[in-house]
User: What shape does this take?
Amino acid sequence: MLERYFAILEGIEKSKYLLNKDKLEKLSEKAEEIYTNCHFCEHRCGVDRREKLGRCKARLGSIASHFFHYGEEEMLVPSYTIFFSGCTFGCVYCQNYDISQYQAGIYIEPERMAWIIDGIFGRARNVNWVGGDPTPHLLYILKVLEKCSANLPQIWNSNMYCSVETMDILKYVIDVYLTDFKYGNDGCAEKLSKVKNYWDIITRNHEIAYKQGEMIIRHLVLPNHVECCSLPVLEWIAENTPDAVVNVMDQYYPTYRAFEYEEINRRISSEEYKKAYEYAKKLGLNVL
Assistant: This one.
C-alpha cells in the first residue's frame, strides 16, 4: 500500500482546479460571502474581514515566504511552498510563531502569484499552501487559481480546523491533504492550541478530506502526551482513514511559550517516540 504513495503526485493526471476551471469564479463568489462574515474556520468569528482582522489575525493573502521546499515528505519534494501569515490556532509551542502569531509578509497580486506558479511548472512537483494556516486565505488562493494554468497538484497543508463550508470548496481544488492531527482530546487542544471542540471538528474534517483526495497525516509527538494524544490519534486513523500515509514526527522542541508549560518544556524522549511509532506500526498504518 505504501508504495503507491511514492507515486502519489504522478498518479494525479490533472489537478482538480484545472478540471473545475468553470467553477472557480462561482467558488470565489462563495468564498467572498464567507469572507465578509468570516467562517472559513470553526472559530466562526463572523468578522467582516474587509474592515478588520478576525481571530486568526490574517490579512488576506499576506505571504511570509514562498520557495522550493526540500524538507517535506519524500514523495512531495521539491514542493513549492507558499507560507501565509496568521493562523486559526494559538499553539504555545509553534515553531513558526513569527509568522503565525504576528503580522508578517506582503501581499502579492493574484495575477503575479499565478505567473510565479506557472513559471515553476516542471521544477516543482506541487504547490503547497501552508502557513500559519492557509484556511483564512482561501479566497486569495481561489483568485490565484483562477489565473493559473500549470498542471500542478495542489496541497492543503493545514491544521484542519476548517468549517464545513470551506471543506465544500476545497473538494473542487485540492488534490492532496497534508494534515496536522495534533491531539487526542479537547482538553489538550484547548490548553496548548487555544481551540475548542477540537476532536469533533478535526475528525469530521479528516473523514471528509479522506473522501475528497489523497491524504498524508502528520502527527507530532509531544512530551508527556503519548497516552492522551498520540495513541488515540493513531487508533482513530487506523479505524477511519486506514489508507492514509502517516508521518509520526519526532522533531518537537520547546520554543515560543512552551517553557511556560512544564509538561512540554523539553524534547521528547526516545522511549516516547518509539512507543508512538511502534504503536502505529502495530495498528497496520502506512507509516513513513
Summary: The two ends are 12 Å apart (CA to CA). The chain has one domain: 2-287. The mean pLDDT is 95.
